[in-house]
């Protein structure tokens, strides 16, 4: 079999990202899209942006990751389905060989991953606390009427970052309002907010873990230079923000699909670019067959059922193509 | 007479004993169904807000059962082993149920082995006499029940989990040659398929096998707990800390997964101690999972998959012959 290109797709709750790499693992295409609560729409849009440059026959493998990985796998026909922690780790150690610590902050969650010799040795993930994620930064920027892109730049100008309570999103917000009323200038407040987020991240995720150099900072929030500075200041070391920092999950899963191909060439399950024009729909229903009352998701492609997700017992998803759904 | 045994807390430790005991005394035994959303909702509605998850689940089972039976059996476990105590929440359990649920007729008795092991059975005897005046019959029932319990323990020492022995339709036979994981936590969390989101089955589906503190004889766990500067007086602290050290010393574990329930005070200390010790002495990868009634399954699955990748698959870039966690 000829080794062609590999497509990696990361469907998260905030962003949906696609990366295409060639057989030499060079990045041909990287796309970052907002999910906006409609992962299938974002997915189709992503494919549309790829298909005129990549021929369908060229695709040797497809991988999916992120919280929507099973959905994407069913719709696309994926060869590899993996969690986002592994995907992020693979991408970081590929772009920054020798990386020991990954700080990842996305829209809805944050992760800390520790590695040694390219192998993950420990990780932690926060999915519950809002005060450590990109959405919170976005919200605060909006409240202060500052374009998100300017946020980092302004924070860098701070002379004396003010101390803001970062334990919880609600407290942080009221503390910021208080500091504003005291007349603190906006740059100092922004820098203070970055520091609060960093402290929150370290308290929640790093708890007693030793963070060795090289330290990589990735995820959507890594665009914010104020955050990078705050990490550097608090950890007292250099922080590397790799190129493609905001699509690392998609890159990682594309790499995994490629590595697996190299170990053992396979014939891809990819259904083709037609998916981009397909009528994709999900429907939720509550199963009444036992008192668990699962909210089952039924996925249609052109009015045909292609699979099910979210049933606890497998009553429906056992009808899925097991390989496609990346389960079992 | 029909007696209901709620499927929660000590259920997973003592069910074979009590089922046999009651049956030998000619009492019909009814157990609640395995935890599901309905049971959990019943429990969350009725229990005090800051109760730990398993206590809420227990409330749910009680509410589910209470109108189907003449009596509910809710013993007061004070101490399971010499010089140890059980979690304080167990002590107040009968009263919590009676007052919060305006409940039903509760059969209860204090059971303690604090002074000596035999006291426990003395308690059982006194309790049995409440059911039948025939002391001989009670003694015989206790003996038969004890034999059942012993067989149950023997099976657990072979690697069977309570859920394999109690509510499996077919008996699952553990395969200790697969990649082994210690799952550390309370039996009533680990074996509750719904509350634990079927953790054990998930690991087995990946292709691994599970060992838990239930697979370790208590005497062995006590020896290992001696490594702590002060012997804990909570028996489950001995089981979990000592048990996980025993497992780490005796089996080629890939990693340790700790399952905590939100709102459990004692756990927060023991988990910390266990994690530190296992990491330092055995360099074992450790994953901490906390469950409560709101826990999303997706987050748990992601962590579990990543842990599996990290401990079993290790490298995805091909060169996976690097030394483990050096
Ligand atoms: S999908 Fe399965 S577990 Fe969920 S409600 Fe239906 S029968 Fe019950
Ligand atoms: S030990 Fe923890 S989980 Fe168990 S009953 Fe006590 S507080 Fe609840």
Account of the 3D structure:
The complex is a heterodimer of chains A (328) and B (326). Chain A is an alpha/beta fold and 328 residues long. Chain A folds into 3 domains: 1-96 and 242-277, Nucleotidyltransferase, domain 5, CATH 3.30.420.40; 97-241, ATPase, nucleotide binding domain (Nucleotidyltransferase, domain 5); 279-328, no CATH class. Chain A is 36% helix and 23% strand. A 5-stranded mixed beta sheet of chain A has the order 3-2-1-4-5. In chain A, helix 2 (69-76) links the parallel strand 4 and strand 5 (80-81). In chain A, helix 5 crosses helix 7 and helix 5 packs parallel to helix 8. The longest helix of chain A has 21 residues, at 186-206. The two termini of chain A are 27 Å apart. With 326 residues, chain B is an alpha/beta fold. Chain B starts with a strand and ends in a 13-residue tail after the last helix. In chain B, strand 1, helix 1 (11-24) and strand 2 (28-31) form a beta-alpha-beta unit. Chain B folds into 2 domains: 2-157, Rossmann fold; 162-316, 3-Layer(aba) Sandwich (Rossmann fold). Chain B contains 14 helices and 10 strands. At the A-B interface, helix 3, strand 8 and helix 9 of A face helix 2 and helix 14 of B. Bound molecules: iron/sulfur cluster (2 copies). One iron/sulfur cluster binds at residues 287, 289-290, 292-294, 296, 311-313, 315 of chain A. One iron/sulfur cluster (SF4) binds at residues 52, 54-55, 87, 89, 186, 236, 261, 264-267 of chain B.
């Amino acid at each position: 079999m000829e080794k062609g290109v590999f497509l990696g797709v990361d469907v998260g709750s905030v962003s949906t990202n696609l990366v295409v790499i060639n057989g030499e693992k060079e990045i041909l295409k990287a796309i970052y899209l907002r999910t906006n609560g409609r992962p299938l729409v974002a997915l189709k849009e992503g494919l549309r942006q790829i298909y005129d440059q990549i021929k369908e026959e060229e695709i040797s493998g497809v991988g999916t990751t992120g919280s929507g990985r099973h959905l994407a796998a069913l719709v696309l026909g994926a060869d590899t389905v993996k969690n986002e922690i592994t995907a992020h780790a693979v991408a970081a150690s590929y772009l920054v060989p020798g990386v020991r610590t990954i700080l990842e902050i996305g829209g809805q969650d944050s992760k800390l991953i520790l590695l040694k010799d390219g192998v993950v040795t420990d990780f932690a993930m926060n999915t519950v606390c809002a005060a450590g994620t990109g959405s919170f930064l976005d919200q605060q920027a909006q409240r202060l009427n500052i374009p998100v892109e300017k946020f980092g730049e302004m924070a860098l100008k701070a002379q004396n970052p003010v101390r803001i309570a970062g334990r919880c999103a609600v407290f942080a917000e009221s503390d910021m309002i208080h500091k504003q009323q005291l007349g603190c200038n906006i740059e100092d407040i922004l820098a203070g907010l970055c520091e609060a987020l960093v402290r929150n991240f370290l308290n929640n995720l790093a708890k007693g873990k030793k963070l060795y150099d090289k330290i990589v900072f990735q995820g959507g929030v890594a665009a914010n230079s104020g955050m990078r500075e705050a990490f550097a200041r608090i950890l007292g070391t250099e922080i590397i923000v790799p190129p493609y920092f905001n699509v690392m999950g998609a890159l990682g899963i594309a790499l995994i699909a490629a590595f697996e191909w190299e170990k053992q060439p396979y014939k891809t399950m990819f259904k083709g670019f037609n998916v981009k024009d397909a009528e994709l729909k999900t429907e939720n229903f509550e199963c009444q067959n036992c008192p668990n009352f699962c909210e089952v998701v039924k996925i249609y492609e052109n009015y045909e059922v292609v699979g099910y997700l979210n049933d606890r017992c497998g009553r429906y998803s056992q009808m899925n193509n097991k390989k496609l759904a990346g389960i079992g | 007479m029909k007696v209901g045994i709620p499927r929660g807390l000590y259920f997973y430790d003592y069910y074979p004993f009590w089922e046999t005991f009651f049956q030998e005394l000619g009492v019909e035994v009814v157990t609640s169904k395995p935890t599901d959303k309905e049971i959990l909702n019943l429990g969350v509605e009725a229990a005090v807000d800051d109760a730990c998850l398993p206590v809420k689940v227990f409330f749910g089972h009680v509410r589910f059962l209470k109108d189907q039976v003449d009596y509910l059996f809710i013993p007061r476990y004070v101490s399971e082993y010499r010089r140890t105590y059980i979690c304080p929440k167990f002590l107040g359990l009968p009263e919590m149920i009676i007052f919060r649920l305006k409940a039903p007729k509760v059969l209860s008795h204090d059971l303690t082995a604090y002074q000596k092991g035999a006291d426990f059975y003395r308690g059982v005897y006194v309790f049995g006499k409440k059911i039948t005046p025939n002391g001989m019959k009670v003694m015989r029932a206790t003996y038969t029940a004890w034999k059942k319990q012993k067989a149950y323990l023997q099976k657990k020492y072979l690697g069977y989990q309570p859920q394999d022995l109690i509510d499996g339709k077919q008996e699952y036979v553990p395969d200790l040659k697969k990649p082994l994981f210690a799952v550390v936590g309370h039996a009533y969390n680990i074996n509750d398929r719904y509350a634990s989101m079927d953790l054990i089955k998930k690991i087995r589906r990946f292709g691994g096998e599970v060992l838990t503190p239930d697979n370790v004889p208590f005497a062995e766990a006590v020896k290992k707990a001696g490594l702590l500067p002060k012997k804990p007086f909570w028996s489950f602290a001995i089981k979990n800390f000592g048990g996980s050290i025993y497992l780490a010393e005796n089996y080629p574990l890939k990693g340790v997964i700790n399952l905590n329930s939100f709102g459990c005070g004692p756990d927060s200390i023991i988990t910390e101690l266990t994690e530190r010790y296992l990491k330092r002495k055995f360099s074992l990868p450790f994953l901490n999972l906390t469950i409560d009634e709101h826990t999303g399954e997706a987050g748990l699955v992601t962590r579990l998959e990543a842990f599996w990748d990290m401990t079993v698959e290790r490298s995805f870039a091909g060169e996976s012959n690097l030394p483990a966690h050096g």
